[in-house]
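Subject: sequence -> structure tokens, single chain

Hey, anyone have a minute? Need the predicted structure for the following. Not urgent.
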Amino acid sequence: MRISITILPDSGQPIDEKYIKNFEANLKFVKGEEYIKQLAMLGMMYLQNAIAYDNKDLYLKARVLIKG
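Reply:
Had a minute. Here:
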């Protein structure tokens, strides 16, 4: 089953934490350029939740993922 989400950090809408954890777990099966793309997407998901929840820890996690 595929789920579609919109990553828009300034929307104020959080992304379901279960979806993020599942996405993160599936990264171990991705290689090459697709891995980099999905890692950036994961960082943006954490950033969106950091903004939605005003959570500095999530922001720091997003920052690490986005910077690489």
